Amino acid sequence: MNALIGKVAFVSGGASGIGRAIVERFVAEGARVVFGDINVTGGEAVATSAGATFIRQDVAQEGDWISAMRLIEELHGRLDVVVNNAGIIGPSGLETVEVEAWNRLFAVNVTGVMLGCKHGSLLMQRNPGGASGSLINMSSNAALLASSTNCGYSASKGAVRLMTKAIAVDFARRGLAIRCNSIHPGAIDTPMNMTGTEEENAALNKALDAMSPMKRRGRPEEIAAMALFLASDASSYSTGSEFVADGGCTAALSGI
């Protein structure tokens, strides 16, 4: 406990699922947390229950990032951690994909992460005592092994994976103490997966459980624990790296 005492963190997509778990864990570990989401009702509820500060945010809009960073600087005068967690599933099959949906997928999953790294790192470079901080980008195990049913999602999360490495190496070579790493969850038990009928959701859950050698979906709290490590000083020598939490999905060929 208390691994984040004295740190200020921002989490995008913090109103539900993995983002909410990260907000709650960071607060429990002593961080002062500001988080954003397009879900105002859910965000305000999490802010009240967790003891965090909420701001309405569409991560694809640069102005919303500027507003969020301005709020953090006014409230706390520094920024130590950014978790670029907000993401969407988006279109699936190649032959049926609509360009508008494809562009929105990349606007949220890729441009949103870039903007978080851009504006988060600019504020981190103004920290008292010099540039310092940890950028944590939520990718997916679909960035390591392709999803045959959703080329767009794999492409967007693959972009996050390599963007993370490029940012990490750039900052390290410039002598900036700002680390950048990616987290690659497998199937996690979150509301994002529960958009169909009760029967459809049950069938999907069964399929997701079967994907993992551990025979279960992950819990948001398990991904929050990984984010905690990367946000804390315990990971001070980790940058440009991939941290996988997928129950062994990417460790072996399926069924063999």
List keywords for this structure.
256 residues; alpha/beta; Rossmann fold; seven-stranded parallel sheet; 44% helix
Strand arrangement, major sheet: 3-2-1-4-5-6-7
* Count of strand segments: 7
Largest pleated sheet: 7 strands, parallel
Describe the global form: globular
* Average pLDDT figure: 94
Strand content: 15-25%
Number of helices: 7
CATH-level-2 architecture: 3-Layer(aba) Sandwich
What's the CATH H-level homologous superfamily? NAD(P)-binding Rossmann-like Domain
What structural class results from the helix and strand content?
Answer: alpha/beta
Looking at CATH, which topology would you report? Rossmann fold
Written as H for each helix and E for each strand, in order along the chain, the element string is EHEHEHEHEHEHHE
The total tally of domains equals 1
- Stretches where pLDDT falls below 50 for ≥5 residues? none
Termini separation: 40 Å
Portion in helices: 40-55%
Question: Would you kindly provide a written description of the structure presented here, covering whatever features stand out?
Answer:
The chain has a single domain, classed as NAD(P)-binding Rossmann-like Domain (Rossmann fold), CATH 3.40.50.720. It is 44% helix and 15% strand. It has helices spanning 17-28, 40-50, 62-76, 99-124, 151-173, 198-211, 220-231; strands at residues 8-12, 32-37, 53-56, 81-84, 132-138, 177-185, 242-245. Strands 3-2-1-4-5-6-7 form a seven-stranded parallel sheet, with helices on both faces. β5, α5 and β6 form a beta-alpha-beta unit. It is globular, with a radius of gyration of 18 Å.
